[in-house]
Amino acid sequence: IAGADFFTTDAWTPRGLVTYDTLFVIDLRSRRIHVAGSTPNPDAAFMAQAARCLTDGVDGFRPGHGVLICDRDRKWTDGFHRIVQGAGVRIVLTPVQAPNANAHAERFVRSICGECLDRLILFGEGRRLRALDEVVAHDHGERNHQGLGNELITPEGAGAGGTQVRCRERLGGLLRYYHRAA
């Protein structure tokens, strides 16, 4: 089972302030995040391409996921539904105005925006994409998840017996991870 949703980020570009909609999918079992795409205008062509990328057998998020939970946002086009369902994934729509029906995705949106993106002034699409990559890498390898027994999604296996505590920072110290040195 996977949950999908959008969140918005603002970035200053030569055209002025642009708001980007970012589509992501979260695996509910492992809590792994996959950013499927980001655009200032999530039209039917963007959604069809995102659906093809998600259902790709090699690089996509699809393998092992038979159910995709989506809200009733108009951004989810009929073309997206057709492509995803054609790949054998059943789409479950949440009830109207019921964010708890897709709680894991909504919590990730709250975390990524509240802990990071709302605290940054991003200049250009490249910086915005780098910030997204850093947040996802932090979420996977440096952030404990309560639903996983306070374990990391992708643990390093570094020496837990060390005595010296080290700090690893991302995005200029906005995201921090403390660990014991080997």
Give me some keywords for this one.
182 residues; alpha/beta; 27% helix; six-stranded mixed β-sheet; two-stranded antiparallel sheet; globular; Nucleotidyltransferase, domain 5; 8 strands
Structure explained in plain terms:
The chain has 182 residues and is of the alpha/beta class. It has a single domain (2-157), classed as 2-Layer Sandwich (Nucleotidyltransferase, domain 5). 27% of the residues lie in helices and 29% in strands. The chain has 4 helices and 8 strands. Strands 1, 2, 3, 4, 5 and 6 form a 6-stranded mixed sheet that branches. Strands 7-8 form a two-stranded antiparallel ribbon. Strand 4, helix 2 (78-86) and strand 5 (90-93) form a beta-alpha-beta unit. Helix 1 packs parallel to helix 2. The longest helix has 17 residues, at 125-141. The radius of gyration is 18 Å and the shape is globular.
Topology:
Elements: E1 2-13, E2 16-27, E3 33-39, H1 44-54, E4 67-70, H2 78-86, E5 90-93, H3 103-115, E6 122-123, H4 125-141, E7 165-170, E8 175-180
Parallel strand pairs: 1-4, 1-6, 4-5
Antiparallel strand pairs: 1-2, 2-3, 7-8
